[in-house]
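Repro:
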Amino acid sequence: SSSILLSINSSSFSSVMEFPPPPKYFTAYTTNAVEEHTAPKPPPLPGNEYVMFGSKFNLDEVLIRPLKEQGITELFNTNKHKHGDELRKLNRETLQCFLKIVDASIKGNKQEVDELLGKISIIYINMNHLINEFRPHQAVETIKAMLQEQIDSRQTLVSDIETHLSSTKDLLDNDGKESRGDVFEDDNDEEDNNGHLLKTKRAKNK
């Protein structure tokens, strides 16, 4: 597969591959070329139409077109509809249509079955449209959840660092107290020993 990829023209290959390499002209933007202003000017900004990953996009095009513009009947309330309520309503209608299809199939009414199948198709298109309308909100909520997760993890990290710092400070304080206590004990021992020696010397003199 690598030999096939290498044999493809880079200009056409870069427009369809998942992670295209940077354009070849990036090698002309060296540090010296930029400082000396000899580097070529950047390419012009794309217009309303551009190609990305082999697909054409138009900035003026509405990403989610209303169903009416596509010639499809809207089965939900367009005046400030709630996605959850409308999806549940359409789901109930789908179940009702399915039961009607089963009943019409038992009776052998092919025309009614075809009409109900067409109605179910429109219901599914409406449900898919509502889900697509909800995706911007879903993206925002996903970003919020990701940021909140980062905040929580950093707060946990800060709390752990503060706990370790506190325990380390306590250990250092305890070590300092123990070392000072040892010094005082050594001084007392010397005084006791000196006093004992003095007493011994006095006893000998007597």
